[in-house]
Amino acid sequence: MKKDADAGKLPKNTNQSFAVDVKVATGVGGVSSIDGAANTTPKSKKDKRVKPESKLVEENWYLSYAILVDFYNLNGNSSVLRSDPNKKLSGWVKRQRNNRREGKLCQKKIDELDKLHFVWHRLDHAWDTKYNMLIQYQNKHGNCEIGTNVNRPLAEWTQRQRREYRNRHNFVRQHNIDMTNIQTRNDFDLNKRGSMMTSDRIDALEKIPDWFWEKKEVAKTGVMET
């Protein structure tokens, strides 16, 4: 599928129901078909009204969101890397994370992004690569039970995430750290005390269907997750 390089346009293979949702949610009058083609009907001179900036921003947000939906449908995730050819989309995704962190993103848009299992943090490239591999494995096999005889690098990575999670949990418990306090949790994640497993990574992994933290025997391999 040919990706639209402009994150301000609807993808050509966006389904009809979504196109309608975008049109209704934003009041976009220029979308006239399911492929996002603009309405080319000439407007009279009397109809030349400048739209309020807030409305234009809202329209552009949903048009960019449509591009992300297209990316999600193609890749099974919404983790757009900085190295992605569509620089406008990767930049837009980065801005959503920044806007939420700064309290500039409304709950409605947060909910829309969560529908795409949006990851609300900037993952380092190596972790992000393995994370996307895990998503692809789950999409194909319907589980996250990876034996070392199936994919050793990915199996060892998932085992390491579970160990880091346990280390974090034990450290928090031993030092009576209040993780319900947002500032405390952010400081803890920033310093990575006791574990490399941050709250954002926990959130990202738990968004993958069938992900588990407990020790679990892998079927038909005799391999035990540690």
Structure description:
The radius of gyration is 21 Å and the shape is globular. The model is unreliable at 1-42 and 218-226 (pLDDT under 50). 51% of the residues lie in helices and 0% in strands. With 226 residues, it is mainly α. It has helices at residues 16-26, 53-75, 87-101, 107-114, 125-141, 152-174, 182-191, 199-206. It has two domains: 16-42 and 49-114, no CATH class; 125-206, no CATH class. The longest helix has 23 residues, at 53-75. The two termini are 40 Å apart. The protein contains eight helices and no strands. This is Helicase-associated domain-containing protein. It holds the Pfam family HA.
Write down the domain tally.
2
Overall average residue pLDDT: 75
User: How do the SSEs run, as a string of H and E?
Assistant: HHHHHHHH
Number of strands: 0
Gross geometry: globular
Report helical residue fraction: 40-55%
Q: Span between N and C termini?
A: 40 Å
Cα gyration radius (Å): 21 Å
Main sheet? none
SS summary, helix count = 8
Features:
single chain, 226 residues, mainly alpha, 2 domains, disordered N terminus
